[in-house]
Structure formats: C-alpha cells, structure tokens
Amino acid sequence: MKKDKFLNIVTQNFHIYKASCTMFLLGLSAILAILSNIFGMFYLVLSFLPVIAWVILFNNERKNTYL
C-alpha cells in the first residue's frame, strides 16, 4: 500500500523532481567547472615553478665559485 502511494506521488510530481534533478546537475557542473578552472590555474602556475627555479639558478650564479 505504501509503495503504491509513493509511486503515485512520484509519478504525479515527476516534472518537479526532474526539474530539481536537472538544476542540481547544472549547479554541480558549474561548481566543477569553477573548481577545475581554479586547479587548472594552480597547475599552470606550478608547472612553471621549475622553469623559474632553473632561470634563477643559471642567472644568479656567482662568478667566484668553483662548483
């Protein structure tokens, strides 16, 4: 009896559940897009750190060291 009542409620209000599920998925995709953009920028910055370190090491070497 309870299962039939639940199915009736779900089938009568399916458009509401479908809309709320769609809005949830749209919000989730927007949040994931923002996070991937932020972490993408972090990855872009962190990928250039070794290059910057090598440039600093090669440009700031002392002339009087014999390493």
Textual characterization of the structure:
- The protein has 67 residues and is mainly alpha-helical.
- The chain has one domain (2-59).
- It has helices at 2-12, 14-59.
- The longest helix has 46 residues, at 14-59.
- The mean pLDDT is 72.
| Shape, per Cα inertia axes | rod-shaped
Q: Please, how many helices?
A: 2
Tell me the Rg in angstroms.
28 Å
> What is the CA–CA distance across the termini?
85 Å
Residue windows where pLDDT falls under 50 for at least 5 positions: none
Largest sheet: none
Measured by DSSP, the beta-strand proportion falls in under 5%
Integer count of domains? 1
Structural class: mainly alpha
Q: Mean pLDDT, as a whole number?
A: 72
Percent in helix:
over 70%
- The strand count comes to 0
Please write the string of helix (H) and strand (E) elements: HH
Keywords: Membrane, Transmembrane, Transmembrane helix
Transmembrane segments: 16-35, 41-58
Topology:
Layout: H1 2-12, H2 14-59
Briefly say what this structure is.
The chain crosses the membrane at residues 16-35, 41-58. By secondary structure, this protein is mainly α.
List the main descriptive attributes of the protein structure presented here.
rod-shaped, membrane, 67 residues, transmembrane, transmembrane helix
